[in-house]
Structure formats: structure tokens, C-alpha cells
Specification:
Layout lengths: L1 E6 L18 H7 L6 E6 L13 E5 L5 H13 L4 E4 L1 H5 L1 H5 L4 E4 L6 H9 L6 E3 L26 E3 L2 E2 L10 H5 L4 E2 L2 H11 L8 H7 L5 H5 L3 E4 L8 H11 L5 E6 L7 H10 L1 E9 L3 H7 L9 H9 L4 E8 L8 H11 L4 E6 L7 H8 L25 H15 L2 H9 L6 H15 L17
Parallel strand pairs: 1-2, 1-3, 3-4, 4-5, 5-6, 7-10, 10-11, 11-12, 12-13, 13-14
Antiparallel strand pairs: 8-9
Helix pairs in contact: 10-11, 14-16, 17-18
């Protein structure tokens, strides 16, 4: 029997922002818990579009909200050919009855533990309409994901690993925390070590190539030898004792890595030192807003904008870069917010930064609030991509919000901004950040921002 695993990808306008492509682990985990009797093929539509002629006995889909409509279309293609389709993932778990209209069966919650039941029922011809994971799984029961199913080309040269699931915070815009739960679950260090040993085998003897490349740049050997790790956890510092042990383990592998953390990490000297020693090259930090009122509404009032500058300096002092993200269009935001964020990024030399339009994903608290207030403008899920205003902002029009986002991206990734943030000393991994910033410069250079904001604001060009 053949199982076809599909990660759908909606068609994108050529003007739509470039997205970094990672080989995410959700489908490889499902493949890893699939019995050996199954032949498995995995298709990521970002790399290989579906033709509709693929052969399979069973199709399994996963999709986040903006890709859900495309997933439904793919399901229709295969079901017309008499091939059953099951769907899981965040969107299907949050709106299972919607998803069931388009597929034969919906998996609600984490799918790895109940996947055997799905396959057993399928073989008996008794596929149920819904499968629900009761509670959350023990991460130590997970096998190593089937990375061998990825296509060889098309992804960034990074290895991805998951060391925890869950997040204790209740941010009103977040759908992922509801999926993985509000309790912080960790994998055992032994399990993590086993996976790291496969991803980064140790080299014996003196690595002359590394020494030669290091004369050009200390980071270059890691890029050439593909010893780069992305830890995809929601927050790698939610459990401090676990985090310190994890960093001590990572230190043994001669790698560079990045992950996600709250801004509070900037005030923990011990943790920052351990990160730096273990090869941390970047922290993705959700600053979200520069206004305390906005942070309080979204349930992230533990962020303290008055202390952002101090946290940034402490992180930079360890030669760790910052990938900052912001949310725009919040209730306290006026059209001044774009210039305020730009100035903050520029003056604090944030190494890479993006601002996303607030997206009230279905069933989240922000969605419920805006729906109750009559401010949801559309439920076309394809537009729920943080690049479209799907609701009515309080202090600007949707058109102003979208135009402001384009203005902000274009100016953050202008050449003068890149020079100021990346190439002025002290350097913080310039090879890594220069490449990332220049890709966004190339994307945004042709964007037109005439009109609402180009005359009102002057960038630091």
C-alpha cells in the first residue's frame, strides 16, 4: 500500500514576499510512525506542485490557515479519483467540521500517537470521520523524523530539530499554542543527543578545510559544511534548567544555531553566556509592539518596551544577533507606528526584522473579540497570511495598514539601513545577516510605496 503525504502550498503572486523555505518536521514525524508495510512518498508543493496524477491508496494532508483552501482543493482532486483523504494540522484541528466537508477524515490534535489507529481503520475499510488525540503526547515516544523523504534541493541548508512543544503564554493571536498546549513539554537529552549525532557526525583529526575557511570568516566553515541548526521550539527558554542543559549539549557539536526566545532572555546573564558558548548565532524575538497598552490586550504584558534597548544590548554583547518581529494594526496603533518601528529597528541595529499585520486566526481570542465587535472583514482563509488586513483596524484604514507594512519593509531593507545595522562594527555574524537582508532588499526594491506614507515619512536614507 502507498501513502502520499502532502504539504500544500497556495499560488503566490510574484509581488508577494519571499518566504524562507524550511523542511518542517510534521509530515516526517508521521512518516516515522507509519508501519514498514507502507510505501511512503512525501510532496511539498513549495518544491513540487501536485499534478493530480499521483498514485496512492491513502492521502494525508496538513495545512495552516492560509493554505487550508489549497488543501481542500487537493483533497477534491484525489477524492474524485476514489482515493480517501485524511487531514490534520493546526487549521483542521481548530475547525474540524469545516475540514470534514472536504476530506474523509480529520485528525484533531497531535497525530503521531493515533496515526496507527487511522491506518488500521483504513485497512479494514472503517475510516472514522474524526480522530481526536486526548491529551498531549510524551515527546520521548517520538521516533526520529524521516528527513530522507525531503527533496534534495530547494530548502535552506539547515537542519531542523524539535526539543520541546507547548508554550505557557496565552497570547490572544496565537493558534499554535492551543494546538500544542500551554504546558512546556521537553524531550529527554538522550533522545536529543541521538538525533544530533545523526545530524552532525563528529569529524576525526584536524579539519584543515575549516581552518582555511576561518581565515575568511569564522562563520564560513559552518555554512560550507552545513553545520547549521534551527531549533523550531516556540520558546527555547521557558524551562531554564532544561535550557541550560540543552545548551551544554549543543556546545559539544561544533555547530551554529538559532531559535526562538522571549525578550526576557536579555536579562539572564548566565543563560546568555551558555547560549553564546554553545554556538547561538541568532534569537528570533517577538517584540510585538512598542506600546504597553497593546501588549496588555494581547496577553503579552510581560514584555516591557522600556527595557527592550537594554535587552538588545545584552544579547548583542554576546555576539548573538536578533531577528525581531512586530505586529502592526493593533488597537493602539496609529499611522505613526510604522515610523516608530522603523526608527527602533534602525537605532538599535536589529539584525533582521519584520512587521506582520495582526491576523485573527479562527477560534483565537483575537478572532472572537474582533468578530464580536463586527470588525472581521473576510473569512477568506488565504488572506490570513499576516500580509492582508482581514479586519477593520481602529485608527487607520485597511489600505493604510497594508501600505504601511510595505513602506516599513522597504525601508528596513534599504541599502543604507542594511549598512547601518549589519556592516557597522561591532560585527555580529555579518555573513549570515547580510545574506538574509539582501534577499529582502532584492524583493522589496521594486515595491511602490507612493501615496499614503512615502510623503509623510522620511527614512534615514
Amino acid at each position: 500500500m502507498k501513502l502520499l503525504l502532502i504539504s500544500p502550498e497556495r499560488k503566490r503572486d510574484k509581488k508577494e514576499p519571499f518566504l524562507f523555505k524550511f523542511g518542517f518536521l510534521n509530515l516526517p514525524y508521521i512518516a516515522a510512525v507509519t508501519p514498514d508495510e507502507w510505501e511512503i512518498e512525501m510532496i511539498d508543493e513549495f518544491i513540487t506542485p501536485i499534478t493530480g496524477e499521483e498514485q496512492a491508496d491513502l492521502v494525508a494532508l496538513t495545512a495552516q490557515t492560509p493554505v487550508a483552501p489549497r488543501a481542500y482543493k487537493i483533497a477534491e482532486i484525489f477524492r474524485k479519483r476514489g482515493i480517501p483523504v485524511v487531514m490534520g494540522g493546526v487549521h483542521a484541528s481548530l475547525l474540524p467540521y469545516e475540514a470534514k466537508k472536504y476530506v474523509d477524515s480529520v485528525i484533531i490534535g497531535e497525530g503521531e500517537k493515533i496515526w496507527h489507529s487511522v491506518l488500521d481503520d483504513f485497512k479494514r475499510g472503517e475510516l472514522k470521520p474524526f480522530y481526536r488525540q486526548n491529551g498531549f503526547i510524551d515527546l520521548n515516544d517520538l521516533p526520529i523524523p524521516r528527513r530522507d523523504l525531503f527533496k534534495k534541493n530547494g530548502y535552506l541548508p539547515l537542519k531542523l530539530i524539535e526539543t520541546t512543544r507547548g508554550c505557557p503564554h496565552h497570547c490572544d493571536f496565537c493558534e499554535v499554542s492551543r494546538f500544542f498546549g500551554y504546558r512546556y513539554r521537553t524531550r529527554s537529552l538522550d533522545k536529543i543527543k541521538e538525533e544530533l549525532d545523526l545530524l552532525f557526525p563528529k569529524r576525526e583529526g584536524i579539519d584543515l578545510r575549516k581552518k582555511l575557511l576561518s581565515f575568511i570568516s569564522k562563520d564560513l566553515p559552518y555554512f560550507i559544511r552545513k553545520r547549521l541548526l534551527y531549533i523550531i521550539d516556540s520558546n527555547i527558554v521557558s524551562n531554564l534548567s532544561f535550557s541550560i542543559k540543552l545548551f551544554e549539549l549543543l556546545k559539544k557539536y561544533d555547530i551554529l544555531w538559532w531559535g526562538h526566545a522571549s525578550v526576557s532572555v536579555g536579562f539572564n546573564d548566565k543563560l546568555l553566556d551558555k547560549m553564546a558558548e554553545s554556538g547561538c548565532i541568532a534569537l528570533n524575538i517577538g517584540f510585538e509592539s512598542l506600546k504597553e497598552e497593546n501588549l496588555a490586550i494581547m496577553g503579552k504584558d510581560f514584555n516591557k518596551p522600556k527595557k527592550y534597548k537594554e535587552a538588545i544590548k545584552n544579547i548583542h554583547d554576546r555576539n548573538i544577533g536578533i531577528m525581531g518581529t512586530f505586529i502592526i494594526g493593533l488597537d493602539q496603533d496609529t499611522t505613526d507606528v510604522f515610523k516608530e518601528i522603523y526608527d527602533f529597528v534602525y537605532e538599535n541595529q536589529i539584525d533582521w526584522a519584520l512587521a506582520f499585520i495582526l491576523t485573527p486566526y479562527p477560534t483565537t481570542e483575537s478572532y472572537k473579540r474582533l468578530k464580536k465587535e463586527g470588525r472581521i472583514l473576510t473569512e477568506d482563509w488565504e488572506k490570513y497570511d499576516a500580509l492582508n488586513s482581514v479586519y477593520m483596524p481602529k485608527n487607520m484604514t485597511p489600505e493604510q495598514l497594508e501600505a504601511g507594512q510595505r513602506w516599513l519593509w522597504k525601508n528596513i531593507f534599504s541599502l543604507s539601513s542594511i549598512f547601518r545595522r549589519i556592516l557597522r562594527r561591532p560585527w555580529i555574524h555579518p555573513l549570515f545577516y547580510l545574506g538574509m537582508n539582501l534577499q529582502f532588499f532584492q524583493m522589496t526594491r521594486s515595491w511602490k510605496v507612493d501615496g499614503v506614507f512615502s510623503d509623510k515619512f522620511e527614512s534615514k536614507e
